[in-house]
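Ticket closed. Logging final result for ABC transporter ATP-binding protein.
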Amino acid sequence: MKAAGHKSTPITEKIIAILLCKGDLSDEENEIDPCSTWELFRFASTRHKLCFVIGLLCTALTGLFMPLNQVLGGLVARAYLQEPNVTSMITKFVIIILQQYLILTVTNEIVDRLRREYVAAVLRLDAESLDATSPGKLSSELNENIDKIRDGLGEKFALVIRSTCIFLSSLITSFVYNWKVSLVLLPLGPIGVIVTGLSGRFTARSIKRQMDTSSRGASLVEESVMNVKTVAVCNGQEDMVKKYRSILDDLIILGSRVSLLNGFFEGFLFFGIYFFGLFSLLVGVPDTYNEGGFDGGSVIIAFGSILLGGFFLGLLGPHMMTLLKARMAAAVIYQTIDKAATMDVPSEAKVQRLRGDIEFRDVHFKYASRDAMVLKGLTFSARAGQAVALAGHSGCGKSTSIGLLTKLYEKYDGKITVDGRDISEYDRQTIRKNIGMVAQEPCLFNGTIRENILLGREWEGEGTTEQRLREVAAIAQASHFIEKLEHGFDTVLGAGGIALSGGQKQRIAIARAIFTDPPILILDEATSALDVQSEKLVQAALNDASIGRTTISIAHRLSTLKEMDVIYVIDKGAVIEQGTHGELLSKGGIYSRMAETQNLGVDENRVKSGDSSSEIFQRVQSRRSSRMSNKIHPRHDKESQYFFSSKASESVIATIKERILRRVLHRNAEFFDLPETSNATIVNDLNQQPTALLAGLDGRAVLCVWCSTTIITSNIAALLALEIFSQTRTIQIMAVEKYFENNYTYSQKEVADIQRKSVIVQALIWSVSNGSIYLFGLVSFGFGAFFVYHGLLTGQALYLVGMTVEFSSWALSFANTAFPDLVRANAAARILYTYVDLPEPEEDGDAQTQLKGSLEVRNVSFAYPSRPHHRVAKQLCISAAPGDTIALVGPSGGGKSTLISLFERFYDQQEGTIKFDNIDHRGMAVRHLRTQIALVGQEPVLFEGSIAENILLGCDGSTIDDVRLACKMSNAANFIEDLPEGYDTDVGAKGRALSGGQKQRIAIARALVRRPKILLLDEATSALGGESERIVQEAIAKASEGRTSISIAHRLSTVKDATCIYFIEEGRVVEKGTHEELVQLRGKYATYVKAQSLSSS
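Final structure:
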């Protein structure tokens, strides 16, 4: 960062900066200066530094030996015969092997350490720093910048040293043999340094912009692929591809500009080399005819040596550029690491156990991205062992206060105390290890259920870790469905594993939160994804588990708050009401009105309860059992030398990226269920592999494919890094950073083993290719001398043949510098072409019919491809006439959301039919079908960009007036228009600039702006507060006039006016009818109704 009083740089420093290729970054505000070359070794140990220095000494020796060939050539020209030096050749061969082995080994170890430090640093960043970036951008920074550092520290660093030594030794050699010719060629040195420095100065700004633009592209790929279902239901594939293409076009321009400048300066340097070379011959050749002049051999030695040195000086340009890129990349990486260095360092050490006495006193807070205060004098308290609740409309500050309590953010003003001490006196680890939290949107990681609950933690109370694992699973009502799975707690989740329903994921998250028996339990809509019966069971268990600990609950479903000791009603960042559930109902205030909107208006005596709370908890307790087995599952954009080749290669890469993104976004859900094409794998491949492929597109042939395995294996670590970056907040709140750091370190070991073997192969190939210069010289001059001696060849012919053979060996030597690039390009091409070869998206089927809204599901059976023997839907039947409002209720995992996926054609059923207006939905074009069906999902997904852009995603022909109307219908217009930039407000990565309820309302507006014939609502109002929910429900009811709506809901107050309610359990409809009919039936639905009654009794 610059100081406020920026002063001009002295002219001497500017000259030094140019000569050192530092560029003009120091002249730019708010840009990152490249770090010094020495700082590239910041994380190198003493052993690393020693080995690297030895490697550089070997590099210098090979450079110093290089002019010997020119000397040999001159002596041949003088005497036609010269005994070749075999010992010298063998010595150089051994030195080159040692050089490459040491440098590449040290480089790999430093880069691996740097990766670990970066991942650890991200896990220590505060929430405001995370808000300013995105998982895709962090992943891009890690992969691309680390590759640039590897390139700059490896062969290219050695080549800079070698080229410099070759020039110096060539200069000395030429002066020894012919000082006149050498004097003419002397200006080549300073010219080369100045030209190389100017090249770095003029290209530095474009390189920085290239890196920033590349990060933006990586972020877009991450959010579109990771949320591909949301993109698909909005028909937003082409919108995403167009945004991506715009970024790629910027990259083409920037890459071409860098290469144009680079090519100009290189061309100018080589022009100087050849100009002075010609001038030296004009001076040296006539001198051989003067008495006392130098002989012809000395002219050839001097000319050849300086020309050789000048040529390698010219090659410094690309290598210095690579080194500059490495320094800039390191500066970006170090910026994150240095920022995190000021934060608390995560530790696995045991921390003091707090009592859980919490108090907020006149707390004010605003987000860095906004000017308006979110909390305006918030005051509330929770005594140790007390159960308190925070209620209020979406965006009032409930979740923000939790962010302050967990030290994700720091308060602006006021005081927060824990156990009587200011929260600032505690480090993050102490606070977070005393808190168990279940967030609004459950987050599970790739791995087994056991690993997701344990996260590397050991149980320190009575009994074993395995007993505690099963105990918390039973408390969270997760044991029942886990035991039904084939592998139980060892069932793999995520890529290549099974998919769980929202309620099942939430129950595992609850088990994870209470595993360590924390004194403070935070439930941020913890039961929002549970069905009524599971919610009742879990709530009873949590009530019992809350004894002896402080519990803070945030909930919009007020039926979950009836047993709270104190309920605080928050509005506009301050508490406006407080009391028990009964007290607040009797006051007739905001809470009472919120309760009225959720009350089902049913006399509890009409519904017979199947189980009492005590009986329920006894069943829960009876499911607890034994023992543990926790295991950890574990570029080179070598610049094109000329503008047109760079533009062509960048354009090809851009076309490949665009084509892959388009084809991937049009795949069905089954494609992403496969581990080799999981969302995270695709994101990693599309962001990382094209950079490596670039090396194979500028005219160089692919030499071999031997290290493809290294590239593929390294993807494991890259995928884990992306997962860590995507769920950083969850990891921080659970204080399990060390567990994920260790997992990442473990994932690198497999790569390191392969790298050690590849380094040996690379060193051998490098030494052979460089040693070929001396080997070919030995063979050509050795055998040539024999032929000259016997009169079979003239000396002139030998000299010409020898020079021709030498030039061939030089060509092989130069090709070797591209060898690592080409290896990676080959492996990258093999990976990328698996996506490129995907079939074009086809729009087969009816694309004309305008639906009226009737639907019929007849005898539908379905099993997910990843679990073909487990049927989620079993002979399922539902129907709706145009304009009907249909509700699907029942236990989590019963098949309700699966049915929505079938409607949207993410999957196709194995048996039965789904018909819209009596047309089989599989006979309709997918895009056309989705234009007439709108879905609002259980977890709202927004993309980086403005609010208006998010609402209009994939919606051709709509205007800003349509957006405003849809926002009014979804109760979003008021809060949007209160924002400084209104509908142009950027929502941030994953919509983090907005609250959960605000995101949900925008998602509803996105559905309504399409004027769909069929509206699918999968828990569409689950994140809304009572008043907002009432208004949105009215808006949805009004919007549903003339169209069919299908709602999935656990909050039954939202569906009591439905035309028909279907109770679905284990893939079948077990009850159906209107609300009144089902209540009178006194069956399963009636039991759910009783559980959600908001009566104060």
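The first strand starts at residue 358 and ends at 365. No further action required.
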